[in-house]
C-alpha cells in the first residue's frame, strides 16, 4: 500500500462539511416551509453558513496537500 495518511485525513474531513451543509439547508427549507415570508431573511444566513462550512473542506484539502510533501 502506498500513499500518505494526509489523503485519508482529507477524506474524513470532507464528511463534516457535507453533513453541515445538509443540516443548514434542511433547516432553511424547514424555516421557509413554516414561514414563507421569512425567505428573504433566511436565505442570506443559509448561504453564509454554507460558505463558512465549505471553507472547512477547503482548509482540509489545503492541509492534505501541505502535509503530503
TrEMBL record:
Subcellular location(s) of the protein: Cell membrane; Membrane
Annotated transmembrane regions: 7-29, 41-67
Topology in the lipid bilayer: Multi-pass membrane protein
Domain of life: Bacteria
InterPro entries to which the protein is assigned, alphabetical: ATP_synth_csu_bac/chlpt, ATP_synth_F0_csu, ATP_synth_F0_csu_DDCD_BS, ATP_synth_F0_csu_sf, ATPase_proteolipid_c-like_dom, F/V-ATP_Csub_sf
GO annotation, cellular component aspect: plasma membrane; proton-transporting ATP synthase complex; proton-transporting two-sector ATPase complex, proton-transporting domain
Residues under site feature: Reversibly protonated during proton transport: 54
Positions of the V-ATPase proteolipid subunit C-like domain: 6-66
Keywords from the named record: ATP synthesis, Cell membrane, CF(0), Hydrogen ion transport, Ion transport, Lipid-binding, Membrane, Transmembrane, Transmembrane helix, Transport
CDD domains attached to this UniProt entry: ATP-synt_Fo_c
Record Gene3D superfamilies: F1F0 ATP synthase subunit C (1.20.20.10)
Similarity comment: family membership: Belongs to the ATPase C chain family.
Protein name: ATP synthase subunit c
Organism: Terrabacter aerolatus
Gene that encodes the chain: atpE
Amino acid at each position: 500500500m502506498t500513499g500518505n495518511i494526509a489523503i485519508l485525513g482529507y477524506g474524513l474531513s470532507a464528511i463534516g462539511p457535507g453533513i453541515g451543509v445538509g443540516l443548514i439547508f434542511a433547516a432553511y427549507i424547514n424555516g421557509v416551509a413554516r414561514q414563507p415570508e421569512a425567505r428573504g431573511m433566511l436565505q442570506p444566513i443559509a448561504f453564509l453558513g454554507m460558505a463558512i462550512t465549505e471553507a472547512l473542506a477547503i482548509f482540509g484539502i489545503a492541509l492534505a496537500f501541505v502535509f503530503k510533501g
